[in-house]
């Protein structure tokens, strides 16, 4: 998948302009070896997309990985379960990998670790207490026991030629870390996902004093979360939601259902607090919600008011006006509790007088699913509170205003926006330039673009494969874009399979043509109309002499294809099979 | 599709509450005949969805239709071209239809007219000059010559027992009308789509003096556009966009591309004006854009500054900084000019220094497609201006604040929100109640719910079929939800077809089993592994004696299904065929 056949060498920067560099840029080639004393940075995921974040750092023959997450498929990737980063750059290098640092416990940062460890189980997994607890729970499901290494903010650690320092950052999951990577080639500060809530629930703010100190020391390359770079101003404090929840709880007469993300400990905390204040019991619904909150509680990140949390099976022991269901499914996932409640396909029923709160974002692409659930709940008579009509969600990422603070505090020599689509990376790069970082020192790279840090300058040095690796059922990396294209054709157009068995000696049709079609018409008889023409076409091929089964198949394909185009105005997949018997 | 088997009769209203009534409500039955002197209102589309707007009015044995639009399919309806209202209520009644009134020329209000006229070509089509010009252009493509009847605001007309009066309303297409329908059973005011821009480009405001006069006269039932009922405040004037466009044009150095809707005459007008002011030529791109603007210009709705409009084939005669391309594709449609430009698959190329403006809304569900195009354009180095970072779009629908004015001016006896999903209808109904309409006089009906107006009261009287009618290739109404389910399975899981021919006398396998599979693995050899087991299963059935081909097929399905679940962890569609030869 890497570009090939072009001369190697760094890509020239145009002074004064920041320009995105795609992995498929025609001037990019497989990179030359790392220059002596250089540090190579290769984003294998998360640059040009929201998800599967993974960055490879290579220096003095050793490799350090920061994050290893999954990307969730779009509708154009039907049937796919997960999308992983392409690990092929690491093939043959597994023994050189000194560790994988996980900045926090979200799926788009840890979800691909089990697949990474399948290649090499000995890679140490480094992270904070909560992050390790989440990845260990996940690895247990994959029956993998990993080598882990617990770190805390303020702590330093060495992995081969990489000296690491961890810095507390605030995000929509507790215990998130930024990481400073010091090498003889220079220092890189990677924010991970972060925002700068100045009054977080747990008092654990993004450590700007550390950012300032590291800036003073010198940050040669700053990798910065771009997710909200397009959003002007400042992300509101998580704490603001508490008051809104309390008001909604105060007005609610019947049952309350709150939907949010299964790892959003502080959001759940605020629901617990609001419930406690209004004399309601809370039951957690959804396997991941129950598991994650169990971990968070055990590690002291979730403070459950005495007697507030009950098991969902006891929810009916209390009148509806004394209960809250805290559920997953805020993105309209069809199998999650909330969708099933909206479809009257769940033991929890919602009706007039009940209130459902979507304490969550609406992730782009999920609009139809989410509104389908909202409409379903409103059809049942429930009141629905969501981001669109009340402040029941704040983002976990720093907005443009916060990013400006960061750039001004750190004053990095080079900047490489990470975590986001092109539009986010471009917006983030523009913020860096506004604070005085020279445009030619802002690297807008996409996945697979190789960046070398040498003598205080980050330069694009080539590209390596960084395509999608699909997890599909039990297969990893076996499904290709060709199969997905087949699926899209099948899904939009259906198929017609035609089978015939012919006499091996003279090509006479022994049985068939038989037609099987799906996805086009309810009545199979529609397709009977074409059988005589297919038979004629077969006989014609035979009459020409020297016919082989391939020619017969092509003849069948032509006849059926033309008929479908003319008669049905469709282009189904056509699968002709002729066998000799 | 209609509910059945339950006792007929009106549904009781709960005083003080407005509750949505679904077509599938268990207490709803086929309606009794219209009570003497009553007016029956049946929404066949647009209530519970955004699109395929169509309302049937029935009185004194005659039927009047208001609007007849299409709905565009979602991803969960793969391959479908269009969705029509279900006309089956009108079957056998075509001679009673006195006319179809079109409130304006948008597809979701006129797109199904060709399919309606296929049933009965003599139905008069009534509308304003621009609306008729748009529908006539569409009918020409369908090779239909309709009976049309031109009306203007302020004008009255009679169609059978229906006395009509047309009222000017302002919308995102010129020449839109509301319609007052007077019958001996009472009067209905139907807003169509509207907003209340007080300074529209063409000076044609929503005629609130007429609304006031009709209110004084008495509006028994008010059908009100719900699209923006959830949006607080007031929709900004279209005119505001002109200044923003002019600023963007002033800053733009290279080529400018503006994307918008193909029928948004006033938006195109403002692009023409901004181009003229900044010395640029405009070329229209996209068949529908060229056609619609030709019509609008001819009818005096588009005022082209001398020498500003050029044919797209002359665009290269001018330097980029003197041109504007006005294109369709603002929703990320993959075949539209804009997507192709972003993919470098169009003769117009965009690069660093160029500006692309999305002067359009982002219709929910299109986010992924639109952001894909935006990212593509930014990857090419273009500056992208859109609703999210500049005020380059305003809605065509009245927001909550405007709706409150309407209710207070009209003071209707009964209200029936139209045009929207449940969440929009509920929000609109709540606004009516806030202005003093009693909750039990607000009818929140979905498609197919029958409402009778009698003695000044609107009551739900039953339900009629109102399901989706799919246009799919050349077929209309032949594809059912079963085929769509097949398509979804095929698209997500792929299929395995297995074929065998057996001896009719003893069941011995003559040829096969042969496997064809798509959408699961690149390498067909994967499936060879299962062939011996399928053969064993066939032989086992034969060995039991009295085997028929159905039993053999079931045996093959079981073996292959289990194998796919266990080995691939997938549930493909399995299509076994056994024929006797």
Automatic annotation (TrEMBL), chains A, B:
Subunit structure: Homodimer, may be a subunit of the RNA degradosome.
Organism whose genome encodes this protein: Bogoriella caseilytica
Annotated binding of substrate, by residue: 262-264, 393-397
Binding site residues for Ca(2+): 81, 472
UniProt-annotated binding residues for Zn(2+) 2: 79
Name of the protein described by the UniProt record: Ribonuclease J
Entry function: An RNase that has 5'-3' exonuclease and possibly endonuclease activity. Involved in maturation of rRNA and in some organisms also mRNA maturation and/or decay.
UniProt keyword annotation of Translocase present: no
Record gene name: rnj
């Amino acid at each position: 998948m890497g570009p090939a056949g072009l001369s190697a060498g760094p890509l020239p920067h145009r002074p004064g302009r920041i320009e995105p560099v795609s992995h498929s840029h025609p001037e990019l080639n497989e990179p030359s070896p790392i220059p002596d004393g250089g540090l190579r940075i290769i984003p294998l995921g998360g640059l040009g997309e929201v998800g599967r974040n993974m960055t490879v750092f290579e220096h003095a023959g050793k490799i350090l990985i920061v994050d290893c997450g999954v990307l969730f498929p779009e509708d154009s990737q039907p049937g796919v379960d997960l999308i992983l980063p392409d690990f092929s750059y690491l093939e043959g290098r597994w023994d050189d990998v000194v560790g994988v640092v996980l900045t926090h416990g979200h799926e788009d940062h840890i979800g691909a670790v089990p697949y990474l460890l399948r290649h090499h189980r000995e890679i140490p997994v480094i992270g904070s207490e909560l992050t390790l607890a989440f990845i260990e729970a996940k690895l247990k499901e994959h029956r993998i026991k990993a080598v882990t290494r617990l770190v805390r903010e303020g702590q330093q650690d060495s992995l081969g030629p990489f000296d690491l320092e961890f810095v507390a950052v605030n995000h929509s999951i507790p215990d998130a870390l930024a990481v400073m990577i010091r090498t003889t080639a220079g220092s890189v500060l990677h924010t991970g996902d972060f925002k700068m809530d100045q009054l977080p629930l747990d008092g654990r703010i993004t450590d700007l004093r550390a950012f300032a100190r590291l800036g003073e020391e010198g940050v040669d390359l700053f990798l910065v979360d771009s997710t909200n770079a397009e959003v002007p101003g400042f992300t509101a404090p998580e704490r603001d939601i508490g008051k809104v929840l309390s008001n909604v709880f105060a007005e609610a007469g019947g049952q309350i259902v709150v939907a949010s993300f299964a790892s959003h400990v502080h959001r759940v905390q605020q629901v617990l607090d609001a419930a406690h204040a209004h004399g309601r019991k809370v039951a957690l619904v959804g396997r991941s919600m129950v598991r994650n909150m169990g971990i968070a509680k055990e590690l002291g990140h979730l403070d459950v008011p005495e007697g507030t949390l009950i098991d969902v099976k006891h929810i009916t022991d209390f009148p509806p006006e004394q209960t809250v269901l805290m559920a997953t499914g805020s993105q309209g996932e069809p199998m999650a509790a909330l969708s099933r409640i909206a479809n009257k396909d769940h033991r929890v029923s919602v009706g007039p007088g009940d209130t459902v709160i979507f304490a969550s974002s609406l992730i782009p692409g999920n609009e139809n699913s989410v509104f389908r659930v909202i409409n379903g709940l409103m059809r049942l008579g429930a009141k629905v509170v969501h981001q669109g009509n009340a402040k029941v969600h704040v983002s976990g990422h720093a907005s443009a205003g916060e990013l400006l603070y960061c750039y001004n505090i750190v004053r990095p020599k080079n900047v490489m926006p990470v975590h986001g689509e092109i539009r986010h990376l471009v917006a983030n790069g523009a913020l860096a330039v506004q604070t005085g970082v020279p445009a030619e020192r802002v690297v807008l790279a996409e996945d697979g673009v190789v960046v070398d840090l040498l003598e205080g300058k980050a330069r694009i040095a080539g590209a390596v494969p960084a395509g999608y690796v699909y997890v599909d059922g039990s297969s990893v990396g076996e499904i290709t874009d060709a199969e997905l294209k087949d699926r899209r054709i099948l899904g939009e157009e259906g198929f017609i399979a035609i089978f015939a068995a012919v006499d091996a000696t003279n090509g006479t049709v022994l049985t068939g043509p038989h037609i099987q079609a799906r996805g086009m018409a309810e009545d199979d008889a529609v397709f009977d109309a074409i059988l005589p023409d297919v038979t004629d076409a077969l006989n014609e091929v035979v009459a020409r002499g020297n016919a082989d089964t391939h020619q017969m198949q092509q003849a069948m394909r032509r006849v059926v294809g033309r008929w479908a185009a003319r008669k049905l105005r469709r282009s189904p997949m056509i699968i002709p099979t002729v066998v000799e018997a």
